[in-house]
Amino acid sequence: YSFKGMRIGLDCANGAAWNMARTIFEALGATVDWDGETQTVTSVRGDKEVKLSIGSNVLYVNSQAVELDVPSQLINDRTMVPVRAVAESFDCFVDWDGEQKTVIIEDKTVS
């Protein structure tokens, strides 16, 4: 995907674009914390806190439940999250460039 001119690889499966949680959260300027006991990733950027648990079809933004089309997954000991859901949780615009096979992320909070 492309964000602020950075091109970062992603995986596509089950009709969604996926990336490692740490990669997408840090690219968006958010913190990342992993709780191995509950298999939950928590990320904060500004006044937004996003939480996802492995295998859950629900993402929480400031404690508000958002239903996901696909759950986050643990693949080869890496937390994989749906890029669109994560980016939109932090008020980013997400689009798909089919010709370039690229997810484009634009931060709506930056003018």
Folded structure, characterized:
The chain has helices spanning 21-27, 83-89, and strands at 2-3, 6-7, 11-13, 16-20, 31-35, 40-45, 48-53, 58-61, 64-67, 73-75, 78-82, 92-97, 102-107. The chain has 111 residues and is mainly beta. A 5-stranded antiparallel sheet has the order 5-6-7-8-9, covered by helices on one side. A hairpin with a 2-residue loop joins strand 8 and strand 9. The two termini are 21 Å apart.
Based on the model shown, name its key terms:
single chain, about 110 residues, mainly beta, 5-stranded antiparallel beta sheet, 4-stranded mixed beta sheet, 2 helices, globular
Structure summary:
The chain is mainly β and 111 residues long. Helix content is 13%, strand content 51%. The chain has helices at residues 21-27, 83-89, and strands at residues 2-3, 6-7, 11-13, 16-20, 31-35, 40-45, 48-53, 58-61, 64-67, 73-75, 78-82, 92-97, 102-107.
Helix and strand layout, with pairings?
Blueprint: E1 2-3, E2 6-7, E3 11-13, E4 16-20, H1 21-27, E5 31-35, E6 40-45, E7 48-53, E8 58-61, E9 64-67, E10 73-75, E11 78-82, H2 83-89, E12 92-97, E13 102-107
> CA-to-CA gap between the ends?
21 Å
Number of helices: 2
Specify the biggest β-sheet.
5 strands, antiparallel
Outline the low-pLDDT stretches. none
Fraction of residues in helix: 10-25%
- Mean model confidence by pLDDT: 81
List the secondary-structure elements in sequence, H or E.
Answer: EEEEHEEEEEEEHEE
Identify the overall geometry: globular
* Overall SS class: mainly beta
**What kind of oligomer do you see?**
single chain
Number of strands: 13
Question: Reading side by side through the largest sheet, how are the strands ordered?
Answer: 5-6-7-8-9
Radius of gyration: 13 Å
What proportion of the residues form beta strands (DSSP E)? over 45%
